[in-house]
Amino acid sequence: MIVIDAASPTPPYEQLRAQLARQIQDRSLAVGTRLPTIRRLAADLSLAVNTVGRAYRELEEAGLIETRGRAGSFVTAGGEQALEQARRAAHDYAAVITSVGIDPAEAIRIVEAALGRTVTP
């Protein structure tokens, strides 16, 4: 289920993109799943067609979906590839942190800061 918060400082296209990406990566949307048309999803979510179109374009650029012309947009295996790439990067990061002697809690704070999250002491 997609929920767009009109009061959020995050633009609607980004809320939509992030929620669909999360569903693809956690496999709630399986590889091969056909997504609603841009017009249909825009109507369902009370969004502008261009807003949904931008979210779909960004998902396609990230390799998470592919558009097959009039056949529609489908979830690709790119979500699994992105997770594997993230796992490899995390493994490499952990190796660097260990080799330079940084405390694991500090390493996590570094990652959270890089992701732009609020870090708690």
UniProtKB/TrEMBL annotation:
Keywords: DNA-binding, Transcription, Transcription regulation. SUPFAM superfamilies: Winged helix' DNA-binding domain (SSF46785). Residues 10-78 form the HTH gntR-type domain. The keyword Transcription applies. InterPro entries: Tscrpt_reg_HTH_GntR, WH-like_DNA-bd_sf, WH_DNA-bd_sf. Pfam families: GntR. The keyword Magnesium does not apply. Transmembrane segments: none annotated. This is GntR family transcriptional regulator. It comes from Plantactinospora sonchi. The lineage of its organism: Bacteria, Bacillati, Actinomycetota, Actinomycetes, Micromonosporales.
